[in-house]
Design brief:
alpha/beta; 6-stranded parallel sheet; 9 helices
């Protein structure tokens, strides 16, 4: 059966965005909805990590980060929050999550992992990073006008896997890389945490229900 969105456009492929989401904010959400609108994937899963591998331990409880993410996406039924890394506990390795997802969706479904450019540039430091393409595509989001210098390892990786068009990511289950420029929002979780620490307003940087949750639980103080 062909599935179409509200505008009659055919949708296919499952996109995922991992992250600490400490806290989730409008920059994360704008990236998610812009990707769905532009590429017509069937859904996008936000996957909060339990314990980030390349960062320090988050400053609030994992369950609180998860609850904030659920509050943030409650008005868009194309988005959902996936708890698998929370349930697994321990260090959150992307390759383990991709294996889990692949076993769920089957061998033929297109699976697209969304990465910011900063994360992509650190890819060679990831656990079993070269196996990622066996399970998913990579959609790398960059800022307008930013052309980073790729180390030789990543340059060769891009030569091997770079797609000729974003449509290729929906025509195969895995194995391609696409770079896309999206609307930049100058918001970061660290900025929000610092504002909250100083007891300054965090309004309009994140959804209002998340703001109220932070204030109610006195997070980041």
């Amino acid at each position: 059966m062909t599935i179409r969105d509200n505008h009659g456009v055919k949708v296919s492929g499952l996109a995922i965005m991992g992250g600490t989401f400490d806290p989730i904010h409008n920059g994360h959400l704008r990236t998610a909805v812009e990707i769905l609108d532009r590429f017509h994937y069937s859904a996008l899963k936000l996957i909060p990590c339990f314990q980030p591998v390349h960062k320090g331990r988050p400053s609030v409880l994992p369950q609180q980060r998860f609850e904030m993410a659920e509050l943030a996406i409650s008005s868009d039924d194309r988005l959902c929050v996936d708890s698998r890394e929370m349930d697994r506990e321990g260090p959150s390795y992307s390759i383990d999550t991709l294996r889990d997802l692949r076993s769920e969706v089957g061998p033929d479904e297109s699976l697209i992992m969304v990465l910011g450019m900063d994360s992509f540039l650190s890819l060679p430091t990831w656990y079993k990073w070269q196996e990622i393409m066996d399970y998913a595509h990579l959609l790398v989001v960059s800022r307008p006008g930013w052309e980073p210098d790729l180390i030789s390892e990543l340059s060769g990786f891009c030569e091997n896997y770079r797609a000729a068009s974003p449509h290729e990511l929906q025509c195969a289950p895995s194995g391609r890389v696409w770079f896309e420029t999206l609307t930049p929002l100058g918001i970061s979780s660290s900025m929000i945490r610092e504002l909250a620490r100083r007891k300054e307003s965090i309004a309009y940087l994140l959804p209002e229900p998340v703001q109220k949750y932070i204030e109610q639980h006195q997070l980041y103080r």
